[in-house]
Design brief:
mainly alpha; about 5% strand; about 50% helix; 3 domains; Arc Repressor Mutant, subunit A
Amino acid sequence: MERAREELELDLGEFEVALQLAELRTVPTGAGRRKVPYAEVERLRAEEAFPQALRRRVAVVGSVDGSELIGISRDRFAKLAKGGLISPVRWYANRYRAVVWLYLADDVRRFARDHPGLLTGRLPADLREALAEGEDHRARSWRARRAAGFLRQAADGWSEAAVWAELLGPEATAQTVPDLYERTYLRRLRPGFPPGGTGSHAPREVVEATVVADHPDEIAAARARLTEALDRARAERAAPHPEPPPEPPPELSPGRRPEPPPGPQPEAQALPFAQEPPGRSAPPVGPASAQVPDPDPERRGWRRLLRRR
């Protein structure tokens, strides 16, 4: 990834937007990582007016620069974005922990070209009513755009299901996916919605409020898509499950000896100091002269010599 960014002469933010917009194709390399084929780098470098043309396609603007780009006020630009007419492509949290939305410059120009009537005069009545009720579609529009980018890169049904599980969050996912091992597998495959876009000042509650679906229609649609993706994923293969523990040996009743395994049994070997079985009395031990003589004459001679010494 780093070498591809250097070859394309993009900064880190421009490169992340290029990946998000699928300006250059990536391939998986295992362990959740991806790389850029060199053919993609050569294709972009061969374009006319490289790298200015590529930078223009991935350039982003805030609400101030975006309003100046199409000649409207910042307040009107914010109302159009809150109404879902201009979708943000990135976001970060500033030092005051407020979310700052960034928009694709080409999208802003395209909106001004396609909807010139919304740049001047009064806004439509339905849009004014929605804004008066406090509706704000910026986070929802960003989530939809981000999910669409990840779905284009999904390799199978499990990867697609992981995108919808990331959008729903852990609580709603647990209600839709009751199997613990399937949820664990989806967490391993989750793409991570805010890579490089949250900054260093975003608290956890701000991140969760931005990346997790909160609108009832959005949640219902994501659950339906998650269920469909899971049906396809289970048909492809099951989620990894741990190996079952080995069965314990059967318990023996007191006084019962274990039965030998089937098959030929090895011959019993005599132990060098075998004890007498219970119930049989040991032979009486008397003086040395009364003991049974050793049948080996050589050993008997050695014993006599040792006694004399």
